[in-house]
Amino acid sequence: MNNKEDFKNLIQKLLINIGEDVTRKGLLKTPERCANMYSELLCKTGEDPKEEIDTFFESETDEPILIKDIEFYSLCEHHMLPFYGLCHVAYIPNKNKITGLSKIVRVVENASKRLQIQENMTNMISKAIDEKLNPKGTYVIIEAEHMCIAMRGIKKTGSKTITTKKTGIFETNSDLVRNIDLKIKG
Questions:
Q1: Are 93 and 56 spatial neighbours (Cβ–Cβ below 8 Å)?
Q2: Taking every annotated instance into account, which residue ranges of this chain make up the domain GTP cyclohydrolase I (predicted)?
Q3: pLDDT higher than 70, residue 1
């Protein structure tokens, strides 16, 4: 966060503009808490998720590697409300090049810590893996619930938005995609 004091002042002005008494006990530290919260939730803004992949190994497998059910929380760039859910990432190694499993989870975590739309987050994760590992293909699936749908507007809880990004062999091999989809549901 560029200037925490400016941010705290903005939150205080927001509270005043919605009719709150910023001197009441429950709100005294709210501007500071909000500044700290946004600093944490948006801490990877401007960073490239591919930088999380900095460890490489060799493997004899040319089968898909799937890391499923990676929990994430992000903020919608339209309303600054949370969207959260699960991300599933599959890739097929090329020339035996793999990375640590935690590195893929870190890519998801990095990609989630910014203001964005889910579609861009999905593409960002895929691009990071493609650029660092040059796999035969990647397949990223994100299932998320959006608070801008649940809390405002249409006010429908429980709905999920699913976005996908396929590259390489996943774009042309529907059997491979179906196999990954079955493993995710399983």
A1: no
A2: 9-177
A3: no
